[in-house]
Amino acid sequence: MQTDEMEVPIINNINSNCNKQRPLPNGRDVFKNQLKDGESSMESPNLEFEYGDTDGLTAELSEIYSYTEEPEFALNRDYFLEDFRSHAQGRRWITLSLAEQRAYVMRLLDALEVTDRDKRLKVARAILYLAQGVFAECDSDTDVIRWSRHNVFLLYDMGIFTALLELLSMEMDNNQACSSAVRKPAISLADSTELRVLLSVMYLMVETIRLQTEDDQPDWTTAREAFRTELGSPLYNGEPFALLLFTMVTKFCSMNAPHFPMKKVLLLLWKTVLFTMGGFEELQEMKVRGRERLSLPPLPEDSIKVVRSMRAASPPASAMELIEQQQQAKRGRRSRRPLVKQDSLDTYNERDPFKNDDEDDSEDADGNLESEVDPLDRDVIIQPPPPPPPLRPPTDRASLPKGLPWAPKVREKDIEHFLEISRNKFIGFTLGSDTETLVGLPRPIHESVKTLKQHKYVSIAEMQIKKEEELQQCPMTLGEEDVEETPTEVLYLGMLPNLSQYVIALLKLLLAAAPTSKAKTDSINILADVLPEEMPITVLQSMKLGIDVNRHKEIIVKAISALLLLLLKHFKLNHIYQFEIVSQHLVFANCIPLILKFFNQNIMSYISAKNSICVLDFPHCVVHEMPELTAESLEAGDSNQFCWRNLFSCINLLRILNKLTKWKHSRTMMLVVFKSAPILKRALKVKQAMMQLYVLKLLKIQTKYLGRQWRKSNMKTMSAIYQKVRHRLNDDWAYGNDIDARPWDFQAEECALRESIEKFNSRRYDKNQNGEFAPVDNCLQSVLGQRVELPDDFQYSYEMWLEREVFSQPIQWEGLLERN
């Protein structure tokens, strides 16, 4: 595997910001920081963010275009009108009947087949204008979206997508364009014009047809299902459409085609996978159906609904809040006020329910929370402490929440381990994996086992592993496995030969687009489809291009993070070993330190970044009059509380990190070695329940390795983990008693997993894997009667062969009569 191609963040520097000892700021510095940044746990607002497969349709359509492509909207319109007037003089597109519209689209389809490259481009631009919703004839954004939807279904019905696919294949194989782009010192928009037009039309078609609305016509529903099947089937040169786009990604990252517009390719690839394989809600439905097929009990809860109903918590106290409290204490004004504001990480009580009633809150403040401060927490605001809350009666204080959000789970392995310890203690021997025999064990152990079994959860992955072991042990008895040809299975089969290349290419692009990455001369250039031919000369143009470049990188991160998460989730549901091989390639390509490097920044600034110019977003920019842009208006940005795509990307990356490390001891230790705890703790500043949940999950799995002092110093974080993350009934995460305590043997664990994966791939996809089990023909007459195909050169030299091998060799006939 070419893991050395992957540019890896330097591990020693990944947490360098956290290790620098800086002097404590005085009050004046604090107020400077307040004006400068304002990132404080006291001031971080609750983010009204709803996680989903994608953002709204308008936002998703606008992100396919860069702001530097704005002049091309008028160009598309002009080429369409030039051709349309010759066909229907004096008429408008929206006034034509459906039959007339179909006739005109057929005319455009015929014109796409001309050999003249410039004429083909003009026709493609006219088709793009139709897909964009004939905006010159519309009065509002809604009209543009409505006509775009109508035209896209019409274009698909007339076979435009297949024709565009052939043109895309031609452009991919255009060696002249590739070689000229390689030689160019600077690549701009002009080098990818044809590709950008084709990919824009295809993206608009995939994204528009993918979305289902209430007012869809019956034939549109039929067309949607046909298009989904077409995209997910191996119809394009024996491979699905997504595989063609993966090939474009690897070709770009290998520097063989640096002019490819990567943002458009990645967005189209993500939406194609989302459309053909299904989003998060479809995944949940598929999981429910899968458990029913395996006769497993239903899921204890709908995880999507649970996460949406969770409430965000406040982050741990910041540095200056604690310093202010300490100064008050030194001046003899010790107060019974809690240190942090009262809607802290405890969702049900301001006071810690596990503390004794006679303990002083201020002791807890000075002792436990003081060292919970993050060294980077300097951007804070000094505010007067809140008034002390009224103390509740002692009976009320220790009351637990009405209910934890998640039902606890127990694995079969956990029950076996519990019984093994109990039998060793009370009986002196074990019974292996027998979880039914409880003879000789005391009554409390019986009750414990009963409780554990009530919460036992058997996953689909465990059933798949068990079935795979049976198939490996009894290949002749059980015969071949019936594999359903789902879109996920087809895509995995196509990706398998070059899987490592695809993974490394995606991570290279993610690294190049990450805000924490420094520009390097040998890194890939992802700005080929955003930089104009002529660089800006005024301050306003430079600001506009700067916003466009940042927006471009954010969209690439969004597409890659969503794509990787979808692939991992679908492969895991399809077969656990498909998920494991993708995960292992990601780990070997240094995905874990890359994601940690991504979060090692001012995450609040990234989530609240305003790299958008609303008046330039499609379709607003083609319908309304363009106001005069000024440096002040660009700097002010929009009025949104947060950037949807950036928060979406952060959650996706955290979910990927969770999937890579879950139940993997060696990968959990990687989180510890890379000092991820302070990086993840800073991410808790974002007051969004779903993001906090996945941060707390990552902190929970490594808590036992961080030491007693860390746990003592981060009691608020520990409390949040207890309240928000699912419980495993006999998991000692909070106490450091590691049941899997063993040397960190990364290689042995990964090699054992790799061996299981290779056995699975060999059994399921290798056509010659049953050669040793094929029946042998023992009949002499049958074997001699078989026709043997001899090569041509043997027939020419047949007589020489007879002379050398037969006639010139003495035959010892008497040897046949001797006894052996």
TrEMBL record:
Locate the compositionally biased regions of type Basic residues: 330-339
In this chain, the stretch annotated as Disordered covers 315-405
Signal peptide from the UniProt entry = none
- Which Gene Ontology terms of cellular component type are present? cytosol
According to the entry, every stretch annotated as the Far11/STRP N-terminal domain falls at 44-346
Q: Where is the Far11/STRP C-terminal domain?
A: 442-798
Composition bias of kind Acidic residues appears in 357-374
Q: Name one Pfam family in it.
A: DUF3402
**SMART domains per the UniProt record, alphabetical:** DUF3402 (SM01293), N1221 (SM01292)
Biased composition range(s): Pro residues: 383-393
- Swiss-Prot/TrEMBL GO biological process terms: cytoskeleton organization; regulation of cardiac muscle contraction
The record's comment on protein family reads:
Belongs to the STRIP family.
Q: Which PANTHER family match?
A: PROTEIN REQUIRED FOR HYPHAL ANASTOMOSIS HAM-2, STRIATIN-INTERACTING PROTEIN 2
Task: State what protein this is by name.
Answer: Striatin interacting protein 2
